[in-house]
């Protein structure tokens, strides 16, 4: 099974309880991955409010993930 | 240049304008003591630093294409900030003031909406919360 590294930030990290983890998963896209994790850990940030970065570049929630990818889920930002 | 720092921005010198600039606009966003009617004691900023730096630089590059300006820089603080400390500084130089003000405003707006930086407020009553999460509005 593909193995992914996952990073969490801000409210999402608080909810998940860790800032990063590796996970073996059948999820093929960030949206599938998030839904899988959200269900398991009762995450409340809505999928439609999320952005995602794969290997340190913005990506789309329906991009195809591959073994070894680093997936960072980005909850609503609030800089400035 | 866009950079993220844990160093107090108020202690950093403002970059000298290019000699052709007739206008230099400096915007500093500081930690406010109130938000949504609650008393704020301090803030914590967190960044996805590598991507934030890249996206911030893209915004500055875009500002040079959109506005007739000579230069734009931005530095954003991370870590724990007390009320009154500078969270963000944007410096725009241009031949004329109007373009400098417009570009500066645009850069600040884009940074707030695009760059992966998050803000947690600590309130006087001991509670805290991430801004932008769970329907809280983002402002300031």
Provide a descriptive summary of the structure in words.
The complex is a heterodimer of chains A (about 80) and B (about 140). Chain A has two helices and five strands; from the N terminus they run βαβαβββ. Chain A is α+β, with helices and mostly antiparallel strands and about 80 residues long. Chain A has a single domain (about 5-75), classed as Beta-grasp domain (Ubiquitin-like (UB roll), Roll). A five-stranded mixed sheet of chain A has the order 2-1-5-3-4, with no helix packed on it. In chain A, a hairpin with a 2-residue loop joins strand 3 and strand 4. Chain A is globular, with a radius of gyration of 12 Å. Chain A starts with a strand and ends in a 6-residue tail after the last strand. The mean pLDDT of chain A is about 95. Mean pLDDT of chain B is about 90; it is low at about 135-140. Chain B is built from two helices and nine strands; from the N terminus they run ββββαβββαββ. In chain B, the strands form two sheets. In chain B, strands 3, 4, 6, 8 and 9 form a five-stranded antiparallel sheet that branches. Chain B has helices spanning about 50-65, 95-115; strands at about 1-5, 25-30, 35, 40-45, 70-75, 80, 85-95, 115-125, 130. The longest helix of chain B is centred in the middle third of the chain and has 18 residues, at about 50-65. Helices cover about 25% and strands about 40% of the residues of chain B. Chain B has one domain (about 1-10, about 20-125): Molybdopterin biosynthesis MoaE subunit (Aldehyde Oxidoreductase, domain 3).
Largest sheet of chain A: 5 strands, mixed
Major sheet of chain B: size, sense and barrel closure? Answer: 5 strands, antiparallel
Number of domains of chain B: 1
**Helicity of chain B, as a percent range:** 25-40%
N→C terminal distance of chain B: 23 Å
* Greatest interface and its participating residue counts: A-B, 20 and 31 residues
Low-confidence stretches of chain B: 135-140
């Amino acid at each position: 099974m593909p193995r992914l590294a996952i990073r969490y930030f801000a409210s999402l990290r608080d909810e998940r309880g860790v800032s990063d983890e590796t996970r073996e998963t059948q999820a093929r896209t960030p949206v599938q991955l998030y839904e899988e994790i959200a269900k398991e850990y009762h995450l409340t940030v809505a999928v439609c409010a999320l952005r995602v970065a794969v290997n340190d570049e913005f990506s789309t929630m329906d991009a195809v993930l591959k073994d070894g990818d680093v997936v960072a889920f980005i909850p609503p930002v609030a800089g400035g | 240049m866009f950079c993220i720092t844990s160093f107090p921005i108020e202690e950093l010198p403002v970059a000298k304008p290019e000699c052709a600039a007739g206008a230099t606009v400096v915007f500093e966003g500081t930690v406010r003591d109130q938000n949504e009617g609650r008393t704020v004691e301090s803030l914590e900023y967190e960044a996805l630093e590598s991507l934030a730096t890249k996206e911030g630089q893209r915004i500055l590059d875009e500002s040079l294409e959109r506005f007739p300006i000579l230069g734009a820089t931005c530095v954003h603080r991370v870590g724990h900030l007390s009320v009154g400390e500078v969270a963000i500084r944007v410096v725009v130089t241009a031949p004329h003031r109007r373009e400098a003000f417009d570009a500066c405003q645009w850069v600040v707006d884009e940074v707030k909406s695009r760059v992966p930086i998050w803000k947690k407020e600590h309130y006087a009553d001991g509670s805290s919360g991430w801004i932008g999460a769970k329907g809280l509005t983002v402002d300031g």
